[in-house]
TrEMBL record:
Protein name: Oxygen sensor histidine kinase NreB
Domain of life: Bacteria
InterPro entries: HATPase_C_sf, HATPase_dom, His_kinase_dom, Sensor_HK_TwoCompSys, Sig_transdc_His_kin-like_C, Sig_transdc_His_kin_sub3_dim/P, TPR-like_helical_dom_sf, TPR_rpt
Location of this chain's protein in the cell: Cytoplasm
Residue ranges occupied by any Histidine kinase domain in the UniProt entry: 478-676
Keyword entries, A-Z: 4Fe-4S, ATP-binding, Coiled coil, Cytoplasm, Iron, Iron-sulfur, Kinase, Membrane, Metal-binding, Nucleotide-binding, Phosphoprotein, TPR repeat, Transferase, Transmembrane, Transmembrane helix, Two-component regulatory system
Catalytic activity: ATP + protein L-histidine = ADP + protein N-phospho-L-histidine
Enzyme class label: transferase
EC nos: 2.7.13.3
C-alpha cells in the first residue's frame, strides 16, 4: 500500500473533534446553561460536585473560569471541603485544568489526588476508586505524550483496570481494555492488541447504554484486524459497527468508521465498496468541520485508486486534498502529496506537469534532495527534450539528403582524389586520436590513483573518529551508570536518612533554627539528586537504551523546551529496533543541533522532524532565530558542533545540508542510510 500521511493520521485524536468544532459562543452558552441548571440543586454536596464537573468542562476552553468553579465548589462545601475525599476531588479537577497548560503540574496534582483518595473508606470508597481509575488513566496519557507509550500501557494494566475490577464497573473495565489495545496497535503489536480488544468486547457488548464506546471499539478492532491482514475478522467487526452507526448517526467517530471500512474493502480489492465508504466518511467529516479528517479520507481514496492502477482518479483525489494540506503548517504532508502527485503524473505520461510537482516537492523539502528525485526530474526533462530533438533531426536529415543529391555528380568526377584524401585523413585522425587517448588514459589513471589515496585517507580518518566516538559513548554510558547507580544512590540514601531524622524531630515537635536548616539541607540534597540524574540522563538517556529512538528524541525535545524556547517534535514511520550505535549517532546529531539553537540562535520556536522512508532516515531541525549567512560564516570557520555533526553523518554514509539566512532562522537537513 502507498505511504500514509505522517501527521494527518489523526484517528485517535478525532474523537474530540466535535467539541473543538463548536464556536466560542456555543461553548459559552452551553456552559452558562449548565451553571443555571446546577443552581437549582438543593443538596450542597451534589451542587459542589456539579460545580467540579463544570470546571472539568471549562478546562478545555478557559482555565481561569475552570479554576473559579473549583473555588466556588470549595465555598459551597464549607468545612466539608477539608475531608480526605473532597481534597482528593479538588486535586483531581485542578490537574484536569493544568493538563494542557502545565503537564508537570498536572502530574503533581494527580499524585496528590491519589494520596488522598486511596485512604477514603466506607460510603465514598466506590466513587473514590472510580476517580482513582480516571486520574491514573490521565496520568498515563501525559506519559504517552512524552513518548512513554509502554509506561502508559503498564499503568492501564497495573493500576486502572484493577481499580475498575475492584468496584465491579464493567463499562470502565471495557473502556480501559480498549485503551490498552489501541496503544498496542499503535506500537505495532497487533496480536496482543487483538486479545485486549476481545476482552474489551466481553465487557461492553451487552451494555446498551454504551453505544458510543461499543461503536468505537468495533471500529478500532476492525482497523487492528485489517493491519494484521485478518480480513474475515475485520469484516465481522465492521458489520457490528455498521449496526451501531445507524443508531448513533451523529457520532464523531462516524468518519473514522467509514475510513476503516474503506481501507478494509480496498485491502480485499473490492474498490467499489471502498470508495462508497470513503465518500460517506468525507460527507460526515465535512459536516463536522474536521478538515484533517477530510484530507486523510481523500488520501485513503488516492491509495485505493493507486492500488487499482486508476491513476487519473488517484491524481484527482490528491488534487482535492492539496488545498487542505497547503493551509496547514506541516511541510512533511506537503512533501508527501507533491511526491505522490509527481509519481502519479509520471505514470499518466504527463511529464511536464510531473516536472512541476517534482520541483514543488524539492522546494518544500528544502535541501532534502535525494538522488532518486534528481534522476526522475532528469529523466522527464530528457524525454521531453528528446522528442523536440527528434523533430529537429528529421528536418536536418531531409535537407541533407537533398544536398547529397545535388552534389552527386561532383563527387563522381572527383572520386579518386576525394577517396585518397579521405583515407589519408582517416589514418591521420586515427593516429592522432590513439595518441590523445593514450595520454588521456594515463592522466585518468593518475587522477583515479590520487582520488583513491584521498578516499583511503578520509576513510582512515573517519574510522579513527568513529572509534573515538564509540569510546566516548561507552565512557558516557559508564559514567552515567556510575553517577546514577553509584553517587545517585548514595545521595538518595543520605537524603532518606536526613528525612528520617527530620521526621523524628518533627514527631517530638522540637522547633529550632537548626531544624529549619536541616530541612533546607534536605531540599538542597533533593535538588542535587535531581541535577545528578539530569546529568546522567544527558550523558546516556535511559529512553534511548530501553524505549527506542522515537521516545528518546521526544524526551530530548521536551527536556530542551523552556520558557524561552519551545521545541516541537514530529516523527513518522520510525522503527523500534534500530541498531544501538545508529540510534546513539542520530540522538547526538539532534542533541548537537538543538544545543546550537539554544546557545546561538535566540529562537523562540524550534521544530524537529524525523522519519524513515525507503530505507532512508530523514532528520530536519529548524528554528525561527536570528539565523546566519551559511556561505560566508561557514566558509571562514566551521564550529566544533557543526564539524562533529558532519563527521557523524559521513560515518553513516549520509548527507548534511544547511539552509540559513541572516535574520530568517536556520534549517538543518540530514539524510542517512538505515542499516540493520
Amino acid at each position: 500500500m502507498a505511504q500514509k500521511f505522517g501527521l494527518l493520521v489523526l484517528y485517535l485524536l478525532f474523537i474530540t473533534a466535535q467539541g473543538f468544532s463548536q464556536s466560542k459562543d456555543e461553548v459559552r452558552q452551553y456552559g452558562d446553561s449548565l451553571y443555571r441548571q446546577l443552581q437549582q440543586v438543593k443538596d450542597q454536596e451534589k451542587k459542589a460536585e456539579a460545580l467540579l464537573d463544570l470546571s472539568f468542562f471549562w478546562s478545555d476552553y478557559d482555565t481561569t473560569k475552570a479554576l473559579s468553579y473549583i473555588r466556588e465548589a470549595e465555598g459551597v462545601l464549607g468545612s466539608v471541603s477539608n475531608s480526605t475525599y473532597y481534597r482528593g476531588l479538588k486535586s483531581f479537577y485542578r490537574a484536569a485544568v493544568y493538563f494542557e497548560a502545565d503537564p508537570s503540574k498536572a502530574k503533581e496534582s494527580y499524585m496528590q489526588a491519589e494520596g488522598y483518595l486511596k485512604d477514603v473508606k466506607a460510603e465514598n470508597y466506590r466513587q473514590a476508586s472510580r476517580y482513582r481509575a480516571r486520574l491514573w488513566a490521565s496520568y498515563g496519557a501525559l506519559l504517552q505524550r512524552e513518548g512513554k507509550a509502554h509506561e502508559y500501557v503498564e499503568i492501564l494494566i497495573e493500576k486502572v483496570i484493577p481499580l475498575a475490577e475492584s468496584i465491579g464497573d464493567s463499562a470502565l473495565m471495557g473502556n480501559n481494555y480498549q485503551n490498552v489495545a489501541m496503544n498496542l496497535m499503535n506500537l505495532g503489536d497487533y496480536d496482543k492488541a487483538d486479545a485486549y480488544y476481545e476482552q474489551a468486547l466481553h465487557f461492553l457488548q451487552d451494555k446498551n447504554e454504551a453505544l458510543e464506546e461499543r461503536f468505537t471499539l468495533y471500529s478500532n478492532a476492525a482497523r487492528n484486524a485489517t493491519l494484521s491482514k485478518d480480513y474475515q475478522k475485520s469484516g465481522r467487526f465492521l458489520d457490528s459497527a455498521a449496526i451501531l452507526a445507524t443508531q448513533i448517526p451523529n457520532s464523531p467517530y462516524i468518519p473514522i468508521y467509514h475510513a476503516v471500512s474503506g481501507s478494509h474493502w480496498a485491502a480485499v480489492k473490492n474498490y467499489a465498496k471502498a470508495h462508497a465508504h470513503f465518500e460517506k466518511g468525507l460527507s460526515a467529516a465535512k459536516t463536522q468541520n474536521n478538515e484533517d479528517m477530510v484530507a486523510t479520507l481523500l488520501f485513503d481514496q488516492f491509495t485505493a485508486y493507486q492500488m487499482n492502477s486508476q491513476y487519473a482518479s488517484a491524481k484527482e483525489k490528491l488534487l482535492e486534498a492539496l488545498p487542505y494540506i497547503q493551509q496547514k503548517p506541516s511541510l512533511r504532508n506537503k512533501q508527501m502529496v507533491y511526491y505522490n502527485l509527481a509519481n502519479t503524473t509520471t505514470k499518466l505520461g504527463q511529464y511536464q506537469e510531473a516536472v512541476k510537482w517534482y520541483e514543488a516537492y524539492k522546494n518544500v523539502s528544502d535541501t532534502l534532495l535525494s538522488d532518486r528525485s534528481q534522476a526522475h526530474i532528469h529523466e522527464l526533462e530528457t524525454k521531453y527534450q528528446t522528442a523536440e530533438k527528434e523533430k529537429a533531426l528529421l528536418q536536418v536529415k531531409t535537407e541533407s539528403q537533398q544536398q547529397q543529391l545535388s552534389l552527386q555528380n561532383t563527387r563522381m568526377l572527383a572520386g579518386i582524389l576525394l577517396l585518397t584524401t579521405v583515407v589519408l585523413g582517416i589514418v591521420s585522425y586515427m593516429w592522432y586520436t590513439a595518441l590523445k587517448n593514450k595520454k588521456k588514459l594515463a592522466a585518468q589513471k593518475e587522477m583515479l590513483l590520487q582520488e583513491e589515496l584521498k578516499n583511503q585517507r578520509q576513510q582512515e580518518k573517519l574510522n579513527l573518529y568513529n572509534a573515538m566516538l564509540q569510546g566516548q559513548e561507552r565512557e558516557r554510558s559508564r559514567i552515567a551508570r556510575d553517577l546514577h547507580d553509584g553517587l545517585g544512590g548514595m545521595l538518595a540514601s543520605v537524603k532518606l536518612k536526613l528525612s528520617a531524622v527530620a521526621a523524628t524531630v518533627d514527631k517530638h515537635q522540637i522547633k529550632k533554627e537548626s531544624d529549619m536548616e536541616l530541612y533546607t539541607i534536605i531540599n538542597q540534597l533533593d535538588h542535587s539528586v535531581n541535577e545528578l540524574r539530569r546529568v546522567a540522563r544527558n550523558m546516556m538517556p535511559e529512553s534511548l537504551l530501553y524505549m527506542g529512538l522515537e521516545a528518546a528524541l521526544k524526551d530530548l525535545c521536551d527536556a530542551m523546551t523552556n520558557a524561552e524556547l519551545k521545541v516541537d517534535f514530529q516523527a513518522s514511520n520510525l522503527r523500534a529496533n534500530y541498531p544501538q550505535p545508529f540510534q546513539i549517532a542520530v540522538y547526538r546529531i539532534v542533541q548537537e543541533l538543538l544545543t546550537n539553537a539554544v546557545k546561538h540562535s535566540g529562537a523562540s520556536q524550534a521544530w524537529v522532524q524525523c522519519s524513515e522512508e525507503d530505507g532512508k532516515l530523514f532528520i530536519s531541525v529548524e528554528d525561527n532565530g536570528r539565523g546566519f549567512d551559511a556561505e560566508k560564516d561557514l566558509s571562514k570557520k566551521e564550529g566544533i558542533g557543526i564539524s562533529n555533526i558532519r563527521n557523524r553523518v559521513e560515518i553513516l554514509n549520509g548527507q548534511f545540508e544547511i539552509d540559513a539566512t541572516l535574520g530568517r532562522g536556520a534549517s538543518f537537513h540530514i539524510q542517512l542510510e538505515v542499516h540493520g
